[in-house]
Protein: Alpha/beta hydrolase family protein
Organism: Gimesia maris
Amino acid sequence: MREFFLFCILLFSGATNLQAQTEYRVLPRDFNSDKTQQMMRSYLRQQVHAAMDKRRSELEAALKSDKGIFEYQQKRRTALVDSLGTLPERTPLHAQTLGTIQQPGFTIEKILYESQPGFHVTANLYRPAGAGPFPAILHPVGHSENGKAYESYQRANRLLVQHGFIVLCFDPIGQGERKQILDATGTPHHRGSHEHQELGVAPILLGRSLGTYMLWDGVRGIDYLCSRPDVVQSRIGCTGNSGGGNLTSYLMAFDDRIVAAAPGCFMTTHRFKNESPGPGDAEQNLYGQIGAGFDHPDYILTRAPSPTLILAATRDFVPIEGTWDAYRQAKRVYTQLGFPERVNLIEANDKHGFGQRLREGAVRFFARWLQGRQLEVFETEDTPVLTDQELQVTPQGQVLSLKNERSLFDLFTNYEQQLAENRPPLTRKIIRQVTGIRNLKDLPDPGIRLLDSKESSISPQRLIIIPEPGISLPALYWPDGKATPVLMAPSAGMNSSLKTAQQLNAQGHPVLVVEVRDTGETKTRTWRFPGADYYIAHMLGRCWLAMQAEDLLISARWLQSQNKDKSVELQTEGELGPAALHAATLEPALISELKLKETLNSWHELMTSRNAFHHLHMAVQNGLSYYDLTDLDTLRSKK
């Protein structure tokens, strides 16, 4: 029995050693285990804080004079316009009223207008009885599946119209009657938030944002209101909750026709929001805004001293601490300009949503600043709510069912074609300018930590490559061999490539397997949705693809230095393919051969992809204005 027991121990020990030889880990097992402190979050957090600290210093300096505030405002307006990208052209609205619902004291008109040719917006227009003209409120809504028909939004519209306001409440892209991804039966394929993520990749490549398209729908909604003889054009307001608070913030900072604005359950600061709950949907994350020093309160500060009311909820997932910080910043600016009463905050003891006290507060605010009246407004409990079908504008409930309707994918494709027709001849200099990938000579020498002794006969050697402070790249290195050194960067982690690495080494190739940032042991554990860290980097003005491409270049250069300066063969697959293609194109003397498997071949494919979100990390801001991935192959062939 004793001999059998010893045999079992030896057998188990042998199996354990075999596993140790075939499955590797370089970083400690608790690395990235704390979601709030994992590598990429911590790395980006420092940059966010630095940018926001710099912005705060600029604001403090600006507060010393009206001139300083004006210069601060101009800088932030420029940053906002730059982050939105080129806006669509103003084209005929072709507005139609497709039906009217009679209600006690007001009517609801079913409005259809084109924010771009053939691209329709569905809206309900609440109009008081009487000849008018009336002040008007634009109401972009939050992330409700039924868009404008959501109960609390209907209640807000009814309360406003009952107090003498025309209200235009419209469906955002991807919600209500404006779903862009339908299945074979015409049924929406995703919930609104997920559809926004799928729709959010292509605009990045086009130099825009999904928010650009959503903002333009709202701008054209104001155009429609101004076209009506029953609207007082000089008295237009805007309010919305959550995603509608986001759009209200964009619109009130962008469009000077908005006299008074009340964004709800959105206003906070990047410092707080990036921590919890994290970046919002695609349309909420504008390129470079953090890097340019544009924070949430700047949506208010850029319009100071125009009347603005922050609507907030105590138990909101939007951090209330950031909301009060934003309010204090705004109050100081408005006070410096001599109009402290024009900015205010309402905090309801409630959860996220356009609740009753916020609705009442919004009506009182607009009555003061658009009607010149001081009102006590209270909503009655018996407010009726209409069904989705009753408020429906299109015959079949979706704009894509309209004859000759263009989808957002059609707009993406059309704009990409315009960009392609005007691309300059592609050079490596242009690629570097677009991506931010530095020249090889400008990349720092990495720190190298060997976890196994140089004298050890263990192969492969475990090591950590440190391309810059805060970033650790786990790696395995087989040093023996005189053939072409091979750099492998498996997107699925080092253990997925062990067999191939061992075979290459057996054939005489020195092999370095490296996990570039956000792969393998350093891959971000999802803390809100996949891509949250990408969007923080995006708002910083950082290119994710460029960061991974530089990791590859630094690793390849180190491998070259260990092998008599021979050029390197690079192998990768999947999501790292575009980064590897950029690295090989920019440094052909370093990377002489490139082998890619199962990767994205062209950014053009994402213009019509209904599943683009998993390619998010490959998207380069404004990339398609200058080239597509296929153009890199052509440039590589020229060496």
Notes: DSSP finds 20 helices and 16 strands in the chain. The mean pLDDT is 94.
